[in-house]
Amino acid sequence: MNDLDLLRTMRSDTPPPSQDALRRARSRLLDRAASRVRWLPPRLRAGWQTAAAATIVIVLGVGAIVSTYERAGGPADRSAAPTESDAVRVALAEAAAGARTAPAVHATKGQFWYFKEVYRVIQPDVGADEDNMTAEYWYRVGNERPGGLGRIHFEYEFGDVLDIVWNGSQTVVRQNGQVVEERTLRLPLWFRDDPTDPSSRWLPEALAATAPTTAADVVEFLRNVPPGDNPGSDLGGIIGLLFHPVLSPQQRAAACEALGQLPDLSLVPDTVDIAGRHGVGIVSDSGFSRLTLILDSSSCEVLGLETTVVKPVVNPTSVPDRFRGNLQPGSGNAEAILARGVVDSVDERP
Amino acid sequence: MDTVAAGLGLSDAAEIELSLRHPERFAVIFDRYAGQIHRYAARRLGPAAADDIVADAFLIAFRHRSRYDTSQASARPWLYGIATNLISRHRRSEVRMYRALARTGLDPVVEPDADRVANSVSAAAAGQQLATALAQLSTGDRHTLLLVAWADLSYEEVATALDVPIGTVKSRLHRARTTVRAALGNTNPLDPEQESQQ
Question: pTM to 2 decimals?
Fold first, then answer.
């Protein structure tokens, strides 16, 4: 009996599967087959591989990522090399000045924060039909948890359209215009974990509304956020603030300036997001991956966020198992916020 | 048996292709492989985790079926590959389980059985040594070894399942078996002759 045979003796003791468990699994599969609905946004898979890896890198302090793409989906022109951190401060101070003069956004309970974004996987491995999509979100204003959804509307590049409206406890799911589900459905937790959902970076609304109006206080404010909502890193926290719609012009300006005071960031003065818009690229490079936050140079509004892996994972303890092996150099994802605003109902767009 | 459909006599590839137009046909693939994948996952992580692995693996396979390489008549390596990816997420639990077995000689996966216990003094010793070795292996080496030993996949099938070249499978397997043999002291604890010589 050799070593493989010995291993097989271990296998022979394994209890047989429970028929109940198999029946349940089969039933879930048939339910899915019958519904033909893409319950799980494809971005969850691709997104986690890069965007979440970026988040994790930020959280772990290993660094953060930022990649730039000088054209839609293409690699950055390396001749536009990042300059020193002084340049970051100057660029963000100018953007902050613009932010201060922007009109304040007012929203009240019962209204919705509206976001529209385009999303793209770079070096796809999730299937060509799921790599690019346009996503619209209607978040309930004043929700206790960040990003309570009233509606999502996904348009996939291959033509499918998925639309889900949550109205109280009732959920209506439409695919390509046809109602395919109408029932009581709890909001799946995975929506809250989707790193490309803009609200995945938010603090709870009431908390974000108390963000400081001076740059010097922003980092301390973020570090004092209670566990559970704490962003885990200064960079991640500031990015979350800049994505948050509830901030006043003064708060946004403070967050913008505070970003410029973080160490180890670089600037690509003219960066183009995947929607073709020019902005300033704020780059954080961990050596393992790179993240580029693209901001409107005159208002500090977030235009887009891109992540890319620059090196295979070399320190296996720094990245959770689930991401290991999935992070190949050059892979990544990019998103661009196309529109945002406040609307009165989920049937409305700004 | 693997690729012969119950009733229609279709290969896995044909069934998967058919399921693109008739999604419910994917249940045929489930019926063919769910049991064996459950046993494989249960051996690695215990029955409770195996329930989830099987359910998730087939949902993932269903969603990705349009990308199945229909030149591969058997879906077995593909499904084991998906299951293995899911098992990877439980790496720490798996290693903890092996360490527990190595320490105590009690296999957390196996229900107590008086007859087996009575006859398993040597087997328990081997199990402890094997568990020690399995806990020491890298994730990739462990996947490779156990897909061969517990899932009975061929080298080619393991290569397909893990999406690595066959040369990598061979080198991983060699490395893993060397570790296992070393843990066994290069002897076979179940061989009475070898035991008495020690």
Answer: 0.53
ipTM: 0.79
Low-confidence winner among A33-47, A333-347, B5-19, B129-143 (lowest mean pLDDT): A33-47
Which residues, 6+ apart, have CB-to-CB distance to B91 below 8 Å? A321, B139
Q: Do A29 and B110 touch (CB under 8 A)?
A: no
A contacts of B130 (beta carbons < 8 Å): 6-7, 10
- Which B residues 31-60 touch A at CB under 8 Å? 31, 34-35, 38-39, 42-43, 47, 50-51, 54-55, 58-59
Instruction: Answer whether B50 sits within 8 Å of A17, measured CB to CB.
Output: yes
pLDDT confidence tier of residue A70, bands split at 50, 70 and 90: very low
- Chain B positions touching A28 (Cβ under 8 A) are 55, 59
Query: Around Cβ B67, how many Cβ atoms within 10 Å?
Result: 12
DSSP class of A83: B
Residues B147, B80 contacting (CB under 8 angstroms): yes
Give the pLDDT of residue B122.
43
Asked if A312 has any chain B CB less than 8 Å from its own CB, the reply is no
Which of A198, A208, A231 minimizes the C-alpha distance to A303? A198
DSSP annotation string for B86-134: HHHTTHHHHHHHHHHHHHHS--TTSPP-HHHHHT-HHHHHHHHHHHHHH
- Residue in A116, A189, A101, A188 with CA at minimum distance from that of residue A155: A116
- Specify the DSSP class assigned to residue A27: H
A21 and chain B in contact, CB less than 8 A: yes
Counted residue by residue, chain A has a size of 350
Average pLDDT over residues B78-86: 92
Long-range contact set of residues B181-184: C-beta below 8 Å, sequence gap at least 24: B181/A3, B182/B133, B183/B129, B183/B130, B183/B132, B183/B133, B183/B136, B184/A3, B184/A6, B184/B126, B184/B129, B184/B130, B184/B133
pLDDT tens-digit readout, A208-240: 999 999 999 999 999 998 877 778 789 989 999
Confirm or reject contact between A12 and chain B (CB < 8 A).
no
Cα(A207)–Cα(A65) distance, integer angstroms: 26
What is the mean pLDDT of the segment spanning A11-18? 80
A11-15, A118-122, B138-142 — most confident range:
B138-142
Chain A residues touching residue B64 (CB < 8 angstroms):
127
Q: What is the pLDDT of residue B117?
A: 45
What DSSP element (H or E) covers A286? none
- A138: tokens are 């209607």
